[in-house]
Design goal:
The chain is α/β, with parallel strands linked by helices. The chain is built from ten helices and ten strands. The strands form two sheets. An eight-stranded parallel β-barrel has the order 1-2-3-4-5-6-7-10, surrounded by four helices. The protein has a two-stranded parallel sheet with strand order 8-9.
Amino acid sequence: MIAVVAVALLATACAPRAPVGLRVGISYGDRLVWMSDRDLGAALDDAVAVGAQWVRADLSWWNIQPDRPDTYLWDRFDRVVAAAAERDLTVLPILGFTPAWARPAGCTSAICRPADPEMFAAFATAAAERYAPRGVHTWEIWNEPNLIGSWKPRPDAAAYTALLRATSRALQQTDPSAYVILGGLAATSTKDGNISQTDFLEAVSARGGNRLVDAIGYHPYTYPYLASAETPWGTPWEQIGRTRESLRSVLSAHGTPDMSVWITEFGAPTNGPGTTSDGRPGTISETTTHVTEERQASIAADAVRTADATPHVGALFWYAERDIGADTSSNENFYGLRRADGSEKPALDAFRQAIAGVRG
């Protein structure tokens, strides 16, 4: 009997873990903390309705410690965490946005890099101490640090790696269950002050940054093309692992070939200043800035299926739940599953059906 039990225990210990299915969420940016209780509940109810399990939201250092390093204003983000918990949703906070007192001299924007990475790490420690007991264990360190519009005075892989090293250590020391994601890299080219996602990841990994995290965040917007499109030039999605130079090739070169990629933003706008595409080649040009609502629905459904089928993709977050407004001078206002007035776009139901489909 003892031998039988021992064999059974050994078999259990050696059995592979069941694979974790695709995590699906909605990315809300900095909007949730400013909503009324009613609007916050409605926004999170949409995540539940489509079958998402996660919500991604800014945990802004600037919001929490706007004036001084020894005072914290947690109440707004507390509401988000509590409302998500009521709905069995897991929160992915994005740590970022530097308060004025913590910026380098002469830098006047919240997207300035912190003057001292250890000060940012202290903020991360305080956040983990507060929210790990409430079920928050996954953290994304900054948003699109390879863009000049997200990291000032200019993107800097060495400075970001220093921030990542201090912050990752702080989170993992505070919460041994912490899961750290390298800040979602924008799909871009190395020019005009920006650094491409592969060049940035290469520079970070050369400094050991890939070994400081559990996953790589990435924003492979492909519109008007589908995520599943196969092209001669390589869409941002194809650059995860299909192209000669890809996120996967960089990770492999630096000893982490199986590292998970979390797509922490993906979506498509349905209005804007340029021309509209429905996905047909004749509607795609250099002036295309947005897609039809029907094409957005196709992109949403295809993204879920493609993420589920792409090796090492661990998560997909749709951006966004609702349009910001109706001003067509910027397509940034039109990424929602709902219009600004709250009415549903076809993408909302398409996203819901696709999620149900991959879960069987």
